[in-house]
């Protein structure tokens, strides 16, 4: 891993299509930021268009969806993992490329692209009754072995402070009671939202903006991209960053700095 400072640097980014993002800001941002661990969501790649570039990482793992150009996640790191696992243990969640877990000496790194409940909430029941509980159980099981870092697009604004218009979005996907409860249930199992851990009262801090109505320029957004860590890493958290100035996707990157052991 990089030895440029005393911290481990991690970045997570829903790129909303890696090829499209690379035509904009992706390569320059990654070169300048140079994190030790890079987690991507919604890469939308097909097997024949996985980048040949290594982006400076000796390890790269892409988990593609069965459907070409849909969903997909990736972890790139400067350290070779001890093991790599795709998806959750329950096979019913497979096929959409939504999870990659890498085990390292000091922690498990779990990169997820959580299913959206959809505008008509047609996937809310699945999200609430199956996905969220199964992800929570998986993380709790991993944590029995070593600390856990969860990152990615979790598709939920947990608290009213995490979106610009909580009242008008009360029953909309990403801010339903069920989705917010799912996040609360996870945190209650011994995990913490690193950004709110450090900045509990910071307003107007968002990671996603709709392309409609100039939402980004007006900062009418949602914070739905997270770094969540198990409580035993709380004392190691040095900073949690939202790179809201970085464009190239409807999401911006988010970062985590951890003290090296």
CATH topology: Deoxyribonuclease I, Chain A
Instruction: Name the CATH architecture.
Output: 4-Layer Sandwich
How does the helix and strand content classify structurally? alpha+beta
Order of helices and strands: EHHEEEEEEHEHEHEEE
Corresponding CATH superfamily: Endonuclease/exonuclease/phosphatase
Q: State the domain count.
A: 1
Average pLDDT, rounded to a whole number, is: 96
Strand content: 15-25%
Rg calculated over all Cα atoms? 17 Å
Classified by CATH, the class is: Alpha Beta
Shape: globular
- Low-confidence sequence ranges: none
Describe, in plain words, how this protein is organized in 3D.
The protein is an alpha+beta fold and 261 residues long. It has one domain: 4-Layer Sandwich (Deoxyribonuclease I, Chain A). Helix content is 19%, strand content 25%. The chain has five helices and twelve strands. It has helices spanning 18-22, 26-33, 124-143, 177-187, 194-198, and strands at 7-14, 37-41, 59-63, 73-77, 83-86, 99-103, 108-113, 148-153, 191-193, 225-230, 237-242, 254-259. The strands form two sheets. A six-stranded mixed β-sheet has the order 3-4-2-1-12-11. Strand 6 (99-103) and strand 7 form a beta hairpin. Helix 3 packs parallel to helix 4 (177-187). It is globular and about 45 Å long. The mean pLDDT is 96.
